Amino acid sequence: MEAISEKDLELEDGEDSCSEEGSEASGSVDEYVLPRDPKERDRLNVQHELWKKVMKGICPMPKDALDEFLAAKTNPAIMDLGSGSGVWAVEMAQVYPSARVVGIDLVAAVPPPIPPNCLFVPGSLTGGTCMMWAQYDIVHARLLVDRIKGEVAKEAAINRAVLCLRSGGIIILSNYEEFFVDSDKNPLPPAQDTGNNSSRSWCTRLVAEAFRRPGDRLLGDFYHRCLAKNVKVEKGSVNSEFHYIPVGWDGGEGDAGKEIGEMGRRHAHELFDTCKGILKSKGVLQEKIDHWFDKAQEEISGDQSESKRIFHAVRSVWARKL
Ligand SMILES: C[S@@+](CC[C@H](N)C(=O)[O-])C[C@H]1O[C@@H](n2cnc3c(N)ncnc32)[C@H](O)[C@@H]1O
């Protein structure tokens, strides 16, 4: 396939690049607090491998359904919104060589080598930049919508993402839920400074402090509601699924789960390290940061009295545009 260029992204005849609807929907402020450095890029790549193992594929929706959907398209087009290191877009381009895959991020990634059917361009889902309306069969946004501040802005961003789809196209949104869950998949809200924390989690607390979240919301339910009430989304087409990443234990799967559990622990450690940096940059007292970090580490250590068997819960929601 010929390499695609930014020219290929130009709008089809008669399409308005900045429709009223899209412009009105923007108007929000990004709250992007993660660092953009090689260490963070490596963490995103480790996380990508972990998610692939847990989801048994590159996408949360069933692989057969995705293969069938893309095989039925003549020139399938896929957009990865908030493409980060670019790893998802590159792999999708490799797995589906007949598709055109475009990664969009505030800062365009340049992951070498880029397959000829893949391109990265700078852009913002929340405003400033014109998005490419009605051009894609799949719009994928992983770990992006939770970065947008406030429910109104989040919903507007989801609606903008839907507008990038062609008729019949599929939007796929994935995020961690705000809380870690116990071995029975019950939510563990943030641990508190005093009192009994047996049904709470320091991992939830550390992440909630870093990203300034309550630590008790089901983001997936919110995404589900937004898509279900969007008039451009086919009624009854909204699906969702949880995937659970064991952190430092086998997830109840015995030997089969050990590798994922170990990857889960390594990734959690890197995430907690990132949280430390974020909290420091926000001016939180080092003493407090170290305390939350040590407690979270203890919880996933597996060999201390305060350790817990926990999962990091990922929720994915997908739906079809009318
Ligand atoms: C946590 S990273 C996830 C990256 C990638 N989706 C993944 O799963 O590895 C979030 C990414 O979203 C990008 N981002 C944040 N706000 C954005 C916006 N308004 N429009 C486009 N990208 C945005 C950030 O630059 C960052 O690369």
Automatic annotation (TrEMBL):
InterPro entries: SAM-dependent_MTases_sf. Residues 9-23 have a biased composition (Acidic residues). CDD domains: AdoMet_MTases. Residues 1-38 are annotated as: Disordered. It holds the Pfam family Methyltransf_23. Gene3D superfamilies: Vaccinia Virus protein VP39. This is S-adenosyl-L-methionine-dependent methyltransferase. It comes from Sistotremastrum niveocremeum HHB9708.
